Amino acid sequence: MRRMMQRAALLAAAFLMTAGLGLAQMGTFMGKVIGPDGKPLRDAVIKIERKDIKGNWQTKSNRRGEWIYSGMQVGGTYRIECHVNNQMLDAMDNVRASMGEPVEVNFDLKKIADQRAARQKAVEAGQMTEEMKRDMTPEQRAAMEKQMKQQQAQLAKNKALNDAFNEAMSALQAKDFASSTAAFEKAAELDPKQFAVWANMAAAYEGLAATSPEAYDKAASAYTKALEIKPDDAGLYNNFALMRVKQGNIDEAASMLDKAAALDPENAGRYYFNLGAVMVNRGQNDGAVAAFDKCIQAAPKYANCYYYKGNVLSGQMTMDGAKAIAPEGMIPALEKYLELEPSGQHAEAAKGLLSIFTTQIETTYTNPDAKKGKSKKKK
Predict the structure, then answer these.
(1) Can you give the residue range of the structural domain that contains 79?
(2) Of 167, 205, 216, 355, which has the fewest CB atoms closer than 10 Å, so is most exposed?
(3) How many structural domains comprise the chain?
(4) Is pLDDT at 368 greater than 60 in this prediction?
């Protein structure tokens, strides 16, 4: 019995020794996270991945920016990453856990941000400092040199693009449409993805079409390219539509202005007003009235739409003897204009048109001084 108890005691001692040995094989990682502003960063996510066998753990930094994770098996190889807002900002690879003192892994995000900013300036300037060269691995240095060459090439391309664009815009403002279109074509070759190039090229070709009607096709092509890059530009649809009106493509223009109005409801009245005004200038009065009606529907307080509708309809007045007969819709349109803008730009003209139907046309002449000439009765 005594021998059995001694044996049990030895087994217990051996177990305790084994357990102690097992605990001694576990290591600890710890560190601190400094944010981009130089202050301790709270809630940075620290992800720990074991590389030799599968295993993943994570923890967060506290309000002092500190983090700690224990129970890492000694002898294992780990990768430790620092994530902020679901973005990995720094990492340390091939970290080994050790017995005794914790292994310290710190993340200084301000230092990293400063280094990135300095490297970006170096790339833009095309020159690395000696300190940068010392701090980089050969691979990092080769990658940065490649980036610098690409940046310099891009800068040269951008200068050529800017020069061509500025030349084109200057010519466009001077109404030298031939020179302007040539410079815009050059800019488009340098960078075919620039919305401003195609949009202004369309205007230049449209100006050229006044003397060379075939330029309308190139203007339409430029408008189409611009809309491929920026398909939600209501103003461009408006300009394209007005050009189509000049060409007599009224249905296509109306469709484009409907698109512009849908993209930009706040300015829908202006788009339809522009269509109506262009149609008036081209003598397409029926289409103009339809456009002004759309303007009124889209923007009931847009006074000019009412005046121009009434003005266009005044051309359809008829006479019944000495009496003027207004076409349907003319008088209500002019009255609505005066209601909205009683002292507006067209107020006097609107009153003049309305007065045709409210005043008597005199057919005889009366001397205003006739009554003054009568003698007074003597007392």
Answers:
(1) 2-114
(2) 355
(3) 2
(4) no
